[in-house]
């Protein structure tokens, strides 16, 4: 029988979807058929003329992923270093507060560390349960320390914060800025409000920044909560 008379097998054409589905189901295909890679070409999507092999494209993709991982690792290292620095500063503050002999000295220590170690543009300590007499002679009294009754009407803008007893960060209301920062209110772009004691029973600490994004609602509150715990405990035991 001549070749012309031999029965011919019907050709089955596979579409792109079928090929893609098969390769997804058999990821080892090219590993078992490496010779196919020599002639396989795909368009280079980064621009230019010509094409690159699949392996070259895979290498390029892996390099991009590697760069992304390196950037992420670098970010994590920077965060870890920043956390270590903060931990050291909190330790220094804790030991300094423990060594302070009076509440007046505690206030002086707190202000000095907040301004110099923590680089606060402005800081205000608002206390509810202490009299002015305990802090007579403080040079920081007018601009850092405020003694006021918790039910004072000037604290109404802080009611939600005080009722929550949780630290808050971000841009604060005009009435809050004016009460805390007075003549410097317009310069404060963002602030952190830190309760002292459970449900802010003793008062709260306000730290202001000229940078509107420095204190923001997405930042971790752990450091601020610990700062408030330290200061609140130091004032309570004196």
Report on the structure:
This protein has 238 residues and is of the alpha+beta class. The protein has a domain at 100-237: Beta-Lactamase. Helix content is 44%, strand content 13%. It has seven helices and seven strands; from the N terminus they run ααββααββαβαββα. The chain has helices at residues 16-25, 29-32, 54-99, 103-116, 159-164, 174-181, 222-237, and strands at 41-43, 51-53, 122-127, 145-147, 168-170, 190-196, 203-209. The strands form two sheets. A five-stranded mixed β-sheet has the order 4-3-7-6-5, with helices on one face. It has a two-stranded antiparallel sheet with strand order 1-2. α3 (54-99) runs parallel beside α7 (222-237).
Major sheet: size, sense and barrel closure?
5 strands, mixed
Shape, principal axes of CA atoms: elongated
Distance between the termini: 112 Å
Order of helices and strands: HHEEHHEEHEHEEH
Number of helices: 7
Radius of gyration: 33 Å
Annotated CATH topology of the domain at 100-237: Beta-Lactamase
SSE topology sketch:
Blueprint lengths: L15 H10 L3 H4 L8 E3 L7 E3 H46 L3 H14 L5 E6 L17 E3 L11 H6 L3 E3 L3 H8 L8 E7 L6 E7 L12 H16 L1
Parallel strand pairs: 3-4
Antiparallel strand pairs: 1-2, 3-7, 5-6, 6-7
Helix pairs in contact: 3-7
Q: What labels would you give this structure?
A:
238 residues; alpha+beta; Beta-Lactamase; five-stranded mixed β-sheet; two-stranded antiparallel ribbon; 7 helices; 13% strand
């Amino acid at each position: 029988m001549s070749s012309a008379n031999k029965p011919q097998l019907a050709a089955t054409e596979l579409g792109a979807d079928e090929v893609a589905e098969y390769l997804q189901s058999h990821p080892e295909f090219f590993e078992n058929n490496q010779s196919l890679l020599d002639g396989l070409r795909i368009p280079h999507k980064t621009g230019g003329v010509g094409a690159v092999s699949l392996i070259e494209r895979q290498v390029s993709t892996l390099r991009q992923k590697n760069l992304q991982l390196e950037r992420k690792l670098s970010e994590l290292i920077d965060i870890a270093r920043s956390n270590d620095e903060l931990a050291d500063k909190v330790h220094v503050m804790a030991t300094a507060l423990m060594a302070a002999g009076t509440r007046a000295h505690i206030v002086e220590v707190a202000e000095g560390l907040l301004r110099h170690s923590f680089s606060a543009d402005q800081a205000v300590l608002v206390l509810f349960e202490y009299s002015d007499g305990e802090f007579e002679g403080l040079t920081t009294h007018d601009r850092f320390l405020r003694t006021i009754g918790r039910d004072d009407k000037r604290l109404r803008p802080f009611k939600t914060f005080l009722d929550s007893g949780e630290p808050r960060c971000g841009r604060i209301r005009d009435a809050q800025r004016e009460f805390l920062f007075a003549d410097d209110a317009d310069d404060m772009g963002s602030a952190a409000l830190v309760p002292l004691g459970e449900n802010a029973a003793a008062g709260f600490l306000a730290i202001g920044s000229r940078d509107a994004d420095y204190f923001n609602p997405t930042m971790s509150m752990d450091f601020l909560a610990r700062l408030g715990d330290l200061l609140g405990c130091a004032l309570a035991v004196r």
